[in-house]
Amino acid sequence: MQRELYFLGIGGVGYSYGGARRIIAPGEASEGGGWREWLLQLRNEMTRRIAAVLPGPTGGVASAVITGKRGTMPEEVKQAFRDSGLSHLLAIAGLHLGLVGGFVFFTVRGGLALIPWLALRYPIKKITALVTLIVLFCYLMISGAAIPTQRAFVMTGIVFVAVLIDRLRISMRICALAAMVVLVLDPASLVGVSFQMSFGAVVALIAVYEKWGAQLARLFHRGGFGHKALGYCGAVAVTTVVATIGTEPFAIYHFHHLVLYSPLANVIAVPISAMWTLPWGVVACLLMPFGLEALALTPMGWGIDVTIAVAQWVQSLPGNVWSMPRLPTFGVILVALGGCWLCLWQQNWRYWGIAGIVAGMAMMLLTRPPDLILADFGHFLAARTGDGDYRVAAGGEKIHRSFLVSETGGRLLPWPGRGDPAADGLDCAAEGSCSYTAYGRRVAIVTAESGLQVLCDTVDAIVAQVPAGFACRGKIPVVDRIDSWRQGAVALWLDTDGISVVGANESRGDRPWVPHPVSRREREKAAAANRPATPVAPPADEPREAPTDTRFNQPD
User: Fold this and answer.
1) Is the same domain home to 402 and 360?
2) Can you tell me whether residue 535 is helix, strand or coil?
3) Distance CA 48, CA 45 (A)
């Protein structure tokens, strides 16, 4: 989050206890607004009008696929889309721009073909391609121009430009050009989930259809209407499986879970979006200037309601979502390199990339969640049980609990109270302290200042929610709330060979978005070192000399 905020140029976040109040008149232009401010107001107005026609979750999904705004969508609906593998329907990307572009292209071209005077005198195919480009650019701007949308616009735009110059070929070069454009505009997106999953899916799809596209076309798109209908569902299933394989390593790396029945949900929901929901969305946008958007939004809402029902049904299937072990960064890099090797080469040596993918995924077997965690300036404390769950002390923010569950897949259990029997290696019989035992190691957990009287030679480490002092530092690992303030969240791994301690800030390196807290005493000391020395006035009978700079030299 800190990295993303840094590259967005946001220096702080907050919230208000009261409602917003307008400080600029509606007709008065805000300073520095310009076309961006106008575009933002347009998106907000479109979202408001969509919600007026389609209230509730239906309007939230409609706003997500038209203006890219998901704020009105309930969290349970978002979770249903995640757990069913349909989140890509909410992120405006290749599917949306491809379907909108195809709908506009064939509709406009068909309409122009019905006018013989135009069809016989002008290149209506090229005219239609130009109109489609303009529509897709408007869709890009209205949707907020997220990374997947930029990638999809570049790729689909190149296709329609190719129609204009009579060169039509969808290849890996187009994908590489799209990646270059996106990285030039936003280099930091390379390490973001949107860039990785979007290009992971597209590279895998292009590679598969370059290799087996002709065979799949003969299998799915020949025969009668019934065979073609089944073939369409089969093509959607194949596309979903390929896209899932291309994106799942990155989903595991970022979200730590695997959705098992995603192909089933996509086989049902994608045709509904392609044939019904998105076409009505295009019509709704065209009718908005005339105030007639309700004529198209109402049938669009019917398709969205069916899609939400499918997402909730697949979400409820037993064994659908599997929690996955943590995939290390080096592992996902191996997977990405192996995938590029597999997809970019054309000869048989391309299959050597499978070894890199398998090696990268196998690194999940070498990772183990931490045994003890201290975060949130000492307020958040968690200890791992033998079953992989966590005992969590009272206090701390909900976001830390949420991250712990998503990272480990374990349940959060209550911290034992004083007098409770020892459980899961935790014994909290003493006042203000607990004892945690695992892998033959014993750690003193201090929860209050009354529990600070710990003998250094009786434990292997100390974890304290209060300042622990310096008595045992240098002898055994000591982590307290001040360390959590300086290092971010601190994790401890217990082993028969010793105890490993890793701080979040330390593992992220020395980068501009990584905080380096400085105490007040250190700030005062640095300020005194930087303060110019007070000059001493010479006696009245001595000549005055030119003042000199007496400040200390500053380090580079």
Assistant:
1) no
2) coil
3) 5
Pair (286, 405) in one structural domain: no
CA atoms within 13 A of residue 336's CA, in its CB half-sphere: 20
- Direct distance between the N- and C-terminal alpha carbons of the chain, in angstroms, rounded to an integer: 29
DSSP 446-457: E-SGGG----GG
Does 489 map to a domain?
yes
Residues 52 and 124 in one domain: yes
The two tokens of residue 163 are: 């129609």
CB-hemisphere CA count at 13 Å for 270? 25
- Residue ranges making up the domain that contains 404: 372-508
Distances (CA, A) of 399 to 78, 405, 406, 452: 17, 10, 11, 29
Q: Residue 77 is inside which H or E element, if any? A: helix 75-83
Q: Are 266 and 243 in contact (CB under 8 A)?
A: no
- Give the residues across from 436 on adjacent strands: 426, 443
Q: What is the pLDDT of residues 384-426, one digit of tens each?
A: 998 889 999 988 788 888 888 888 878 899 998 877 777 888 9
Report the alpha-carbon distance of residue 105 to residue 93 in Å, rounded: 18
| In a shared domain, residues 89 and 225 | yes
Instruction: Say whether both 157 and 171 belong to one domain.
Output: yes
Q: How many domains does the chain have?
A: 3
**pLDDT tens per residue, range 24-68:** 766 665 555 577 788 888 899 999 999 999 998 999 999 999 998
3-state secondary structure 179-224: HHHHHHHCHHHHHCHHHHHHHHHHHHHHHHHHHHHHHHHHHHCCCC
Instruction: Put residue 12 in one of left, alpha, beta given phi > 0 → left and psi -120 to 50 → alpha.
Output: beta
State pTM to two decimals.
Answer: 0.76
CB 98 within 8 A of CB 136: no
Lookup: tokens for 90? 């909410």
CB burial readout 448-460, b (16+ within 10 A) else e: eeebbebeeeebb
